[in-house]
Amino acid sequence: MSKVARLSMIVLFTLMAVAVGYISLDKRIASAEALTIAQGNPYGPRHEPYGGPPPHQRVGPPPSVYLIGSNPVQGGFGIYRWSGRDWDTIPGGGSDITVDSDGTPWMVNAKHEIYRLDGSRWNHIAGSAMDIAACHGQVYVIGTDPVQGGYGIHRWNGRGWTSIEGGGVRIAVGPEGMPWVVNSNNNIFQFSNGKWIEKTGSATDIGGGSNQIWVIGTNPLPGGYGIYRLKGGRWDPVTGSGVRIDVDSRGAAWVVNASGEIYHWEGSAFDKLPGNAKDIGAE
Length: 283
Prior knowledge:
The chain has 283 residues and is mainly β. It has a single domain (64-282), classed as Neuraminidase (6 Propeller), CATH 2.120.10. Helices cover 13% and strands 53% of the residues. It has one helix at 3-39, and strands spanning 65-73, 76-82, 87-94, 96-99, 105-108, 113-118, 121-128, 131-135, 138-147, 150-156, 161-168, 170-173, 179-182, 187-192, 195-202, 205-208, 213-221, 224-231, 234-242, 244-247, 253-256, 262-265, 270-273, 277-282. The strands form six sheets. It has a four-stranded antiparallel sheet, with no helix packed on it. Strand 18 (224-231) and strand 19 form a beta hairpin. The longest helix has 37 residues, at 3-39. It is globular, with a radius of gyration of 27 Å. 41% of the residues are buried. Residues 1-59 have low confidence and may be disordered.
């Protein structure tokens, strides 16, 4: 074989080796990309503003969260919706707010009137209330009719309010769509099988979500009162304090403290959010 031919073959084999290397590298890159897609990371890195559990533990979009601000307006105080970074203004004014599992907020204003946000408009709902809670399409209120233990408890039936025996001052709706209340003596009750069952402990506020019940206790702390989460039938203390609480569809608490500061539970600690509030409601 001539020197020219040998040189040509060397060049050819070199080019083939380089090509194989590129193909192998492309396959490794493609495999890595496929693994990333398969594992999923829809919310970006850990410092993404929404907070919450690490990305691999998140399922679905962030929940809808609304708050009653601290700026006086007609009807009470301003209403805001969490954008994932900050609070967007929603027309209207209120004093208490809740968010149903479909993301629809219900609120009570300073006159105890009840409203539901349908699209971009607050529709007035007959009746009056001191507090309101919704989950899984079940909406309950603490009314304005004085009874033993606080005020009457009522359930929305789609056309009006059906009274339920008992009384309370704060209300939440638990995982089964059944109400939990705190009465005027700070006792905690769960409605089950047509009757109220008293739970251990005492509270000043209560919040429920798809799989969790949290309370604001009665032990004074800087910022309000202690925070507790129901685990295994017992109230497990959580570091932090507040005066208002609600729980989102992931079981994470959203808290307002005595200074109006807003906090969100991230799985092991509370993360402070911008803004100032009187009350908060989470889907």
